[in-house]
Automatic annotation (TrEMBL):
It is found in: Membrane. The keyword Hydrolase applies. It catalyses: Cleavage of hydrophobic, N-terminal signal or leader sequences from secreted and periplasmic proteins. InterPro entries: LexA/Signal_pep-like_sf, Pept_S26A_signal_pept_1, Pept_S26A_signal_pept_1_CS, Pept_S26A_signal_pept_1_Lys-AS, Pept_S26A_signal_pept_1_Ser-AS, Peptidase_S26. Keywords: Hydrolase, Membrane, Protease, Transmembrane, Transmembrane helix. Belongs to the peptidase S26 family. One of its GO terms (molecular function) is signal peptidase activity. It comes from Spiribacter insolitus. It is a multi-pass membrane protein. CDD domains: S26_SPase_I. PANTHER family: CHLOROPLAST PROCESSING PEPTIDASE (PTHR43390:SF1), SIGNAL PEPTIDASE I (PTHR43390). Residues 39-228 form the Peptidase S26 domain. This is Signal peptidase I.
Length: 245
């Protein structure tokens, strides 16, 4: 699989070297001297590539939602933006933390590198912070012995196979759905330090921490905050511009 981040770093290094070499040579050659096409290309691309690298690595990165595990919050075909600096600035490729800024909060929708295969990016909602004990019984969450507030809203999108709820994690409410025909998987789990327990909003149709464990802090990519495009066989205008809650 092509590692776009690594490719971007390599292109920045190559074009930057060409740009620097050209600046050095420019002092020693006649003003009307011809410049090789590859030098001209490298020095032209360098400012563009380094801006893309900085923005993508430290500010914001676009992602596409591939599945329905986060319904009804996110649909397959949604194109989202992820805040890269909210949880601290990390170096591209190595992902080493260089500037600690903030920490994830309960209820955040986060993009992270899948712990089983870090070449894949996943998106889920944080339902447990480091040190929290998460209990899931009868499809109901409790955190440190306190039941998570929940309200039933009816059927989801006219589909009687799914119930629509709203749930409060921290100070904010979000919507989630449950499949009536699924029994759920009860468990109790204490989140280790520097890890986060995540679940999909489509509770019975999500591969998440219930199956492969908590997400290490160093795997976090950023917080999803905005849907800038929604396209699944055509544009879904009603979702474009939505803030992710």
């Amino acid at each position: 699989m092509l590692d776009f981040e690594l490719l971007l770093v390599l292109l920045t290094a190559v074009s930057g070297t060409i740009w620097g070499f050209d600046r050095w040579r420019r002092r020693r050659r006649p003003a009307d001297a011809r410049v090789s096409w590859w030098v001209d290309l490298g020095r032209s691309l360098f400012p563009v590539i380094i801006i893309v690298l900085v923005v993508r690595s430290f500010i914001v990165e676009p992602f596409r939602i591939p599945s329905g595990s986060m319904l009804p919050t996110l649909e397959a075909g949604d194109f989202i933006l992820v805040n890269k600096f909210g949880y601290g600035l990390r170096l591209p490729v190595s992902h080493d933390l260089i500037v600690p800024v903030g920490k994830p909060e309960l209820g955040d929708v986060v993009v992270f590198r899948y712990p089983v295969d870090t070449s894949q990016d996943y998106i889920k909602r944080i339902v447990g912070l480091p040190g929290d004990t998460i209990t899931y019984t009868g499809k109901r969450l409790a955190i440190n012995g306190e039941p998570v507030p929940i309200e039933r809203l009816g059927e989801w999108s006219g589909d009687d196979a799914f119930n629509l709820f709203r749930e409060r994690l921290g100070d904010d409410w979000h919507e989630m759905i449950e499949h009536r025909g699924s029994s759920g998987r009860g468990f109790s789990f204490t989140v280790p330090e520097a890890h986060y327990f995540v679940m999909g909003d489509n509770r019975d149709r999500s591969s998440d921490s219930r199956f492969w464990g908590p997400v290490p802090q160093e795997n976090l990519v950023g917080k999803a905050f905005f849907i800038w495009l929604s396209w699944n066989g055509g544009p879904n205008w009603s979702r474009m511009g939505d803030v992710i809650e």
